[in-house]
What we know:
The protein is an alpha/beta fold. The chain is built from 20 helices and 11 strands. It folds into 2 domains: 16-51 and 154-468, Metal-dependent hydrolases (TIM Barrel); 52-153, uronate isomerase, domain 2, chain A (Orthogonal Bundle), CATH 1.10.2020. It has helices at residues 16-29, 44-47, 56-60, 65-73, 95-104, 113-126, 137-148, 155-161, 178-186, 199-202, 209-220, 227-243, 263-275, 280-301, 317-323, 342-348, 365-374, 392-406, 424-444, 450-468; strands at 34-36, 164-168, 171-172, 192-193, 196-197, 248-253, 304-309, 311-312, 331-332, 356-360, 380-382. The strands form 4 sheets. The protein has a 4-stranded parallel beta sheet with strand order 6-7-10-11, with helices on one face. Helix 17 (365-374) links the parallel strand 10 and strand 11 (380-382). The longest helix has 22 residues, at 280-301.
Amino acid sequence: MTHSHSNEDRLFSPDSAQRRIARAFYEHVRGLPLICPHGHVPPRIFADEAYDWGSPVDLLIIPDHYIFRMLYSQGISLESLGIPRLDGEPVESDHRKIWQTVCDHWYLFRGTPTGIWLRDELRGVFGIDLKLNSTNAQKIYDRIDEQLSLPDFQPRRLFERFNIEVLATTDSASDTLQHHQKMRDSGWQGCVIPTFRPDAVINLDTENWRANIDSLSAASKIDVHDYRSFIRALENRRAFFKSMGATATDHAAVTAFTELLSASEAEAIFARALRGVSTPDDATRFTGHLLIEMARMSVEDGLVMQLHVGSDRNHNPQIFSGFGRDMGADIPIKSEFTRNLKPLLNQFGNDQRLTLILFNLDETTYSRELAPLAGHYPALKLGPPWWFFDSVNGMTRYFDSIVETAGIYNTAGFNDDTRAYPSIPARHDVWRRVSANWLAGLVVNGVIDEEDGGEMIVDMAYGLAKKTYKLDQKVK
C-alpha cells in the first residue's frame, strides 16, 4: 500500500459508545487556536518575512533527535544522517541520500509518536498522503522541497495557518532577544514571546560555565564577580525578558533537590566556581539553592516557573564528545519530589503568587508524589507528560494516575515542547484526541456527564495552558 490511510476516528476507543462521545468532544475543540507556552522553535525563523528552510532534511531530520536517536539505535551513524560533528569532520552532505536512508528505515517508527506526528504533518501541512517508505522517498522529497520555497510556507504564514494564538521560545539568560525585537519592529501581528532559561549560569557543571558568566555580565551590564552581583544580574535579565513579553522561566535539573543555603555558603560556593575549583557537591547544592531563589524572584516579578527534572543528559559520552548536547542520548532516571522539593515548598509552596509547573520523566511519581503535592500546594501545577511520554499511551497513563487526586485544574494543560515547528499542529491534535477519548471513557463509566466533559475538553485543549502561563493578555 503506497498511500497513508486517514482515519477520522484515529486514537479513539473501538467501543462505539465511547467513540461517539470522543468524536463529539474532539469536534468541539479541533478548531480552537493553539496555545504553545513552552517549546524550542528558534525565534530567528520569524524575524524576517523571508526565511530559507533549506532542504526537507534540514527541516525535518537534522534538528529532530526523536528521529535520529531511533535510527542510531539500529546502527545508522549520525554522520550518515548529516548531523554536524563538533570537530568539523565531514558528514553526509547529499540530502537526497539522507532522506532515502530515513525512508528505507521508516518502519522503525511504526507505533511510535514520531510516526504519528510525521504522518499527520505530511498530510496536514504538505498535503501528502503517501506513506514514507523506500519506494515513495524521492517523490515525497520532491513534493516537500517544491513547497518550502512557496510564500505560503514561510514561517509567519504557517503560524497563521496553524492558528497559533501564542508561541513561547526558550532563550538563554544572556540572549539579547534581537530576533524578538526584530519581530516587534516589523509590525507582524503574530504573538511570539521569549522564555527565560538560566541553566547555563545556574548549573555550575555546565560546560563553559565561566564563559557563560562573562556573557551574563555583558548582557546585564553588571560585573558578576561575586554571588550578590550574580543575583542582581539574574534579576536584571528577568526584568528585561518580562519587558519583551516573557511570562515564564524554565529550569532543568537532574533531580528536584532544593536546599536553602545561607548567604555565606552561597558566596563560598560561587567563589570556588569562579576560581574553577568547585566540586560536584557544590554544583548540586548551588542548583538546589538557586531553584529556591528563582521561586523567590517569581513571587516578586510574577513569572511562571517551570522545572524539568529526571533526565540523565548526555548519557552516551561518545555522542556527547562528537556531536554535543541534545543528540538523543538523554535517558530518564528515578526521581523523588516529596522530600527534595520540601525546602522550596516550605518557603513558597503556600504563596499563591507563585506558579511552579513540574515536569518529570519518572512516571512512578505521578500518583505517588506529584498528584498529591499539586492537589495540596497552591503554588504547584503539573505539566503534561513530557519527552518520552508525549505519546498516546503516555498521556492516557498520565490522566489515569493524576486526575483522581489532583483533578485537571491543577494541571497546566498541554505544551508541545518541540524544536520541529511543522509538527506543532500534529502534536496538539494527538493531545486533543487522547483527551477527548479519555473524557469519553469517564462519561461511559458514569464518572462525569457529557456537559462537564464538554467543558473539561475545552480547558484541557486550550484554557488551562492559557491561564496557567498567564497568556490571557498576550494576544495582539
